[in-house]
Amino acid sequence: MQQPLNPWLTHPTPTDRADEAAPDAYLLPAAVINTPLRGMVEPDAADRLACRTVSGSAVLWITGAHGGAGESRIADLIQGARVSDHCWPVLQDGGSTPRVLLVCRADMRGLTAARNALTQWAAGAAPAVELLGLAILADAPGKTPKPLRDFAAIIGGGAPRLWTLPWVQAWRHGDFTTVPPGREYQRFITDLTALATDTTPSITF
Questions:
Q1: Could you give the CA distance from residue 200 to residue 198 in angstroms, rounded to a whole number?
Q2: Is residue 7 packed enough to be buried (19+ CB in 10 Å), middle (13-18) or exposed (0-12)?
Q3: Domains observed in the chain
Q4: What is the pTM of this model?
Q5: Are 127 and 91 in contact (CB under 8 A)?
Q6: 29 confidence band (pLDDT: 50, 70, 90)
C-alpha cells in the first residue's frame, strides 16, 4: 500500500531502500525528516523542551514531551535506557551524541506537546541528539478517537519513525515489571533495541 505524503514537507523526497525494507513495527512517512528543515520556525520559548545535562551513559535516552508521557514505563522496557525527565539530554562529557526516543500520550495535550518538541528539533533549536523517533502511548483503554489518530499521523510525519502503542491496564495497577503482551510492544522493543545499539554512523543535528 502506498504511504501518504508527509505533511511536514512541501516537496517530499523519496525514502531510501533501507526504509522501504523496514519492518512494519513502526511507521515511516513517505518522506523522512532526518535533517533540519529550511524555513522551519521554532516554537515559542514557553513551548520548547528544556535542555538537561546528564551524567553517566545510556544506550537510549527516553524524553517525555510532557509530564505523564510514560517515559519511565518505556525506559523499563529497553535494557540500558534511561529517562531524561522531560528535557533534551546533553551529555556531561560532551564526547558523543545521545540517542533519544521522544514519547507522548495520545490525547490532545500530549500530541500538541510532541508537535512542539518535534518542531523544535526540526528547526535545529534542540541540542545535538540522534532522534530515533516518536512513540505515542494510548491515554485510555479502547480505540483512540479518529480525530486524535489523524492528528497523531500528522505529527508523526515530523519524526524519523512513529510507533503507536496500545493501553496497558497492568500499568494502571502498578505492575511495571511485566512486559506488555501483544505484538505492538514486542515489535517495538525488538526494533527499538536494534536501533539503539546500531553502530552505523548516522546524521545528527
A1: 6
A2: middle
A3: 43-195 (3.40.50)
A4: 0.81
A5: no
A6: very low
